[in-house]
Amino acid sequence: MVADPGTGLRFAVLGPVRAWRGEEPLSTGSPQQKALLVALLLRGGHTATAQELVDALWGEEPPQQALAALRTYASRLRKVLGSQTLVTESGGYMIDTAAPNTSLDLDEATRLAGEAEKFAASGDHGRARERYNDALALWDGEPLARVPGPYAEAQRARLEEWLLSLLEHRLDLDLQVGCHAEAVAELTALSAAYPLRERLRELLMLALYRSGRQAEALAVYADTRQLLAEELGVDPRPELAELQQRILRADESLNLTLDRLPAPATFVMPRQLPATVPDFTGRTTQVAELSEQLATSERSVMAVSAVAGIGGVGKTTLAIHVAHAAKDRFPDGQLYADLRGTSTSPTEPGAVLAAFLRALGIADDAVPDGVEERAALYRSMLSGRRVLTLLDNARDAAQVRPLLPGTEGCAALITARTRMVDLAGAHLVDLDVMSPEEAMTLFTKIVGAERVGAEREAAMDVVAACGFLPLAIRIAAARLASRRTWTVSVLARKLGDERRRLDELQAGDQAVRATFELGYGQLDAEQARAFRLLGLAEGPDISLHAAAALLGLDADDTEDLLESLVDTSLLESAAPGRYRFHDLVRLYARDCALRDEHPPSERESALSRLLDFYLATAREVYRLGRPGDRIPAHLAQTRHPGLQPTDRE
């Protein structure tokens, strides 16, 4: 059953265990309470007895008060989910995920996988791949993450095995539609993670062979044979041994039979890179790192680098600079596309592929209709050539994958606000703000050495107020450069007012606030609420436990939520268990919190929870330092227990 996105009850187990009513996240409680929820969700609407649930949560050594604890967990869940959802029947409990307006991500993944199997059986490989990809997109890391108990452990193993099976089916289809070069990177990573899984090794051998890498395919077999002998004392399964023999014979039946692809009369060498900025400054380490990575394209299937960072940090400027510096390595051309990942309508991969094919010389009427066919033709056009592709402002890895060249000698540079941890084989670069020295150099290049030299201290105040963010520095410097009657001190004074700082940092069609607005618009409701409330907290950073109190969530759910914000580059992980905003993002988050998006009562409740946490923690620290002192007894009672002596902050 599909839940109404506005009011329905949704559950997720293919990652951290979560629940939502509409877009509002629900607290699923402690790890043991999550374990109970999992034991009920994965029983397909069947009632579980109290004893079965005790066994699921604690196994053969339950605590003395196991039944009482079970009833407590069930009562807490019922308050959150409602009595119509968590039902008591015949001394047991039941949650029916097939009930109206209720959904479970596992049920949806199962449905999509079933459709994929039917499409594959009918020979519709394109739609089968789409369904498998839709099913795989529902996964969010380790299933049942951090949920304890023997039942959860067994289910986690089952779900991980199913995930690998789905990946194998999808990768098999990749090879059937000619995406073998693209599949090599993913199969290499999976084979390294699961070295004893022979089906992955078999697919990798076939992908390498079809990519023209016969020796490497045979090396995979030799490595597999040695590994199985050392670890298990067995030989490779017959299918793998037979594939090795067919590769040795260069068996023609291993080659994929594709329809003849149209080709242009002459190969056009595109030169699509945007102009580099003349005042490019600093970034020496990142330039060297990316340049070195691009150089590996000469000896690898494909060199892929993905640059991530906050909006305005200079990702595009850096990527274009590096691409221009490296273009001599790619004499057959350079392709560029703005993927508009932060807009409400990101560019579709099919549209980008059509534009690339036309740039490579394919006539309009010869561009295939389907995305898969366009991608196959694109890779065929680049085969044996050295082309650099710059994919700017990407939304996510799914948007990027069809656009990767996937052939030896080619390379791709990607910029995105999110870290593309799920892009197999990519070299990830996190771009931070400029150093104070780099920031001053950039400011001086735009404003002029004479004006900056006369008021160097004020100039330092300006770049510091900009948080050393390149976009903010460029805007501030452009405003000053266009106003000859202003001194640097005038600008520093204007930026010194935090309440108006974001309003001051705009010039023409460039504005720091608008840049942050684009990133904020990509957040889901749960992330957006956390982003806003975190903007209310004072101080340079905030601890995990303090953030949990502010948000009204438990520590595990809070950590998952904050780490998801870190992945979007809107939040930074200052140290394990501590988080912080960039100075300008903090101002923007506070503005969001003070707008109409939060009623005053919710802001007051959040700050009250945070103050309760700090007061309760201070009281515990005082008690530890002065045992027996009665002052803590006279402090106001708090609704939050604060950090306990056993907690680590």
TrEMBL record:
This is Winged helix-turn-helix domain-containing protein. The keyword Kinase does not apply. GO terms for molecular function: ADP binding; DNA binding. The keyword Repeat applies. Residues 1-97 form the OmpR/PhoB-type domain. Residues 1-97 bind DNA. PROSITE patterns: OMPR_PHOB. Belongs to the AfsR/DnrI/RedD regulatory family. SUPFAM superfamilies: C-terminal effector domain of the bipartite response regulators, P-loop containing nucleoside triphosphate hydrolases, TPR-like. GO terms for biological process: phosphorelay signal transduction system; regulation of DNA-templated transcription. Keywords: DNA-binding, Repeat, Transcription, Transcription regulation, Two-component regulatory system. It comes from Streptomyces alkaliterrae.
